[in-house]
Design brief:
The protein is an alpha/beta fold. It is about 35% helix and about 20% strand. Strands 1, 2, 3, 4, 5, 6, 7 and 8 form an eight-stranded mixed beta sheet that branches. The N and C termini lie far apart (about 40 Å).
Length: about 210
């Protein structure tokens, strides 16, 4: 289910419509469809998606003219892209100079056993079967996902990136958006890490 909070973040960070936007990792295409109704010209891609209006292609293989997008948007997707360096270089060539890069991410480096335990408890309460032990879940994800710092290192060659705004993420991860307040309260109390991160960048005219 598409969160209204995600839509609000995207619209507040993207240039105004009818900007041409590349959505990376568009999944079922729900966000892209919403942005199109608001007047955006969206090219949505996802190598594993069969969603309507989503092109099933990997980022580094996308055939579009260089500098043909006013902005790129990635919602919890860049930590999966492969190969990382080539994908980030391709993203940079696709966005015009001074164009925007809007990122909503899961920071796996902040995902610890406390977060894994709380997330799994919410999943079980919702009817899911128990999975890995918290420590195993943390190790598995850190071994298989790109960290936010790795993404920033690669993207920072071609984009001036703002500092990440930290916030809740676990409630969005197959649990329930209704648990956002509960997660925020635990973050504020120091009982959970803020595993969500949002940041906006601007395409540099020349690489650093």
């Amino acid at each position: 289910m598409l969160s209204l909070d995600v839509v609000a973040f995207a619209c507040a960070s993207l240039p105004p419509p009818p900007a041409r936007v590349l959505e990376v990792g568009a999944g079922d295409g729900e966000l892209a469809a919403t942005l199109r109704t608001l007047g955006y010209d969206v090219v949505a891609i996802d190598p594993s998606s069969g969603g309507a209006g989503v092109v099933p292609v990997a980022l580094h293989e996308l055939e579009e003219p260089d500098a043909s997008f006013d902005a790129a948007l990635a919602v919890v997707s860049l930590h999966h892209v492969e190969p990382l360096a080539e994908s980030c270089r391709r993203l940079a060539t696709l966005v015009r100079p001074r164009g925007r890069l809007v990122i909503d991410e899961f920071d796996v480096e902040r995902f610890d056993e406390r977060a894994a335990h709380w997330w799994q408890l919410q999943r079980i309460a919702a009817g899911a079967q128990p999975q890995e032990e918290p420590g195993e879940a943390v190790a598995h994800l850190r071994a298989h996902l790109h960290s936010l710092s790795a993404l920033r290192d690669e993207l920072g060659r071609d984009f001036a990136l703002g500092e990440p705004v930290r916030g809740p993420y676990l409630h969005r991860w197959g649990v329930s958006v209704d648990l956002r307040s509960a997660e925020e309260q635990r973050i504020a109390a120091g009982a959970l890490p803020a595993t969500g991160a949002r940041l906006v960048g601007v395409r540099l005219s020349a690489p650093r």
